[in-house]
């Protein structure tokens, strides 16, 4: 298997953009009509995820230590769609048909062998991980909504309780399927450390046109049922680190960092934690009251709020979060955890690197706009 040949051929195909995913799914459903019901009616987000996953797999095809954990998580995560071993050859056949179509005269026997070998490895790793996971955990958890706080017209805090224990680490996320949105899953981070009563909080921001966020933020009622996928994500606390902690949250990117904050608070001697919480306007600081209450009760915690699009009149810091954090001091002795809009996270990470924080001590997660 020639890794560079795989990368070059995929780069050539990927230049065709959304047409690649359109062709792939059309071929898959023509060959296997029974698979269509496993997917949502609207496929735009699904097509984006397919191309993103393929791009990541191909870019790491010569770096198995990085690729295998991603594939294992992908295999476990696909259990909630009902994917089983017999589906992998069907998907593989449509993938090769798609590559052959878009490569045209550049497709040859060597490329076919390379892609067959690569896909066989991918399918084996994913299927083995799914099989192992099925021995321990369900494909999904059913959960009931037991609390709703609509903090703003576009931000809602939900509390749900799963039908069985859902083990996760603070900072992780689960895929959520909302009422009336069958097979449309979107990822939301747990906003609390695990509790003895098994309840989980989610912070939901309404995304314009988002099929799942619209239901969760505006329509869901107490008593409604959700489905939750298996926990995923690596934005988790380095429990062995003796260093102080910097948390930087933009909008509902607060959720996983609040869970990490709670985990830190459970330590016998918590490190000092500086939490920066930012939004465009003051009324979008939807959880500030609770954060300030926690800070007043926790001498190890300092909370700083910032707004960027209006003059806070001295009540908060003024400016973009990367600027506010950068001007606050030297963070080289801290572990940093960042979550929020991609631009904010990228710029904050860059500032921290320039301020002397090693890249290995900056953990981050971003959220997109298709929720």
TrEMBL record:
PANTHER family reported in the protein's UniProt record: NADH OXIDOREDUCTASE HCR, PROTEIN RFBI
UniProt protein name: nitric oxide dioxygenase
Superkingdom of source: Bacteria
UniProt KW keywords: 2Fe-2S, Heme, Iron, Iron-sulfur, Metal-binding, NAD, NADP, Oxygen transport, Transport
Domain Globin: 1-131
Organism the protein comes from: Actinomadura craniellae
Family affiliation: Belongs to the globin family. In the C-terminal section; belongs to the flavoprotein pyridine nucleotide cytochrome reductase family.
Pfam families (alphabetical): FAD_binding_6, Globin, NAD_binding_1
EC number: 1.14.12.17
Domain FAD-binding FR-type intervals: 138-238
Reaction(s) the record says it catalyses: 2 nitric oxide + NADH + 2 O2 = 2 nitrate + NAD(+) + H(+); 2 nitric oxide + NADPH + 2 O2 = 2 nitrate + NADP(+) + H(+)
InterPro entries with a match to the protein in the record: Cbr1-like_FAD-bd_dom, FAD-bd_FR_type, Flavoprot_Pyr_Nucl_cyt_Rdtase, FNR_nucleotide-bd, Globin, Globin-like_sf, Globin/Proto, MRET
Reported cofactor(s): FAD; heme b
GO MF annotation list: 2 iron, 2 sulfur cluster binding; heme binding; nitric oxide dioxygenase NAD(P)H activity; oxygen binding; oxygen carrier activity
């Amino acid at each position: 298997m020639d890794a560079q040949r795989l990368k070059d051929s995929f780069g050539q195909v990927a230049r065709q953009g959304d047409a690649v995913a359109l062709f792939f799914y059309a071929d898959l459903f023509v060959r296997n009509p029974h698979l269509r019901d496993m997917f949502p009616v609207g496929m735009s987000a699904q097509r984006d995820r397919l191309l993103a996953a393929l791009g990541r797999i191909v870019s790491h095809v010569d770096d198995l230590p990085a690729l295998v954990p991603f594939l294992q998580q992908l295999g476990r995560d696909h259990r909630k769609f009902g994917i089983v071993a017999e589906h992998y050859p069907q998907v593989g056949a449509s993938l090769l048909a798609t590559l052959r179509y878009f490569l045209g005269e550049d497709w040859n026997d060597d490329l076919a062998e390379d892609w067959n070998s690569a896909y066989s490895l991918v399918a084996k790793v994913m299927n083995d991980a799914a099989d192992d996971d099925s021995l321990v955990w369900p494909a999904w958890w059913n959960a009931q909504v037991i609390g709703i706080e609509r903090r703003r017209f576009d931000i809602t805090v939900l509390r749900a309780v799963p039908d069985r224990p859902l083990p996760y680490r603070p900072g992780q996320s689960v895929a959520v399927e909302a009422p009336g949105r069958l097979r449309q899953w979107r990822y939301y981070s747990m906003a609390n450390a695990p509790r003895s009563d098994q309840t989980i909080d989610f912070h939901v921001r309404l995304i314009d046109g988002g099929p799942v966020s619209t239901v969760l933020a505006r329509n869901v009622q107490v008593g409604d049922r959700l489905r939750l996928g298996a926990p995923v994500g690596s934005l988790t606390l380095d429990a062995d680190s003796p260093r102080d902690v910097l948390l930087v949250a933009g909008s509902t990117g607060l959720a996983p960092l609040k869970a990490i904050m709670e985990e830190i608070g459970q330590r016998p001697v918590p490190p000092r934690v500086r939490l920066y919480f930012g939004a465009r306007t003051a009324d979008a600081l939807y959880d500030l009251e609770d954060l300030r209450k926690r800070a007043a009760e926790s001498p190890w915690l300092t909370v700083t709020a910032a707004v960027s699009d209006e003059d806070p009149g001295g009540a908060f810091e003024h400016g973009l979060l990367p600027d506010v954090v950068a001007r606050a001091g030297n963070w080289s002795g801290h572990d940093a955890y960042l979550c929020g809009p991609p631009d904010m996270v990228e710029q904050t990470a860059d500032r921290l690197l320039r301020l002397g924080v090693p890249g290995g001590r900056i953990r981050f997660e971003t959220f997109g706009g298709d929720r």
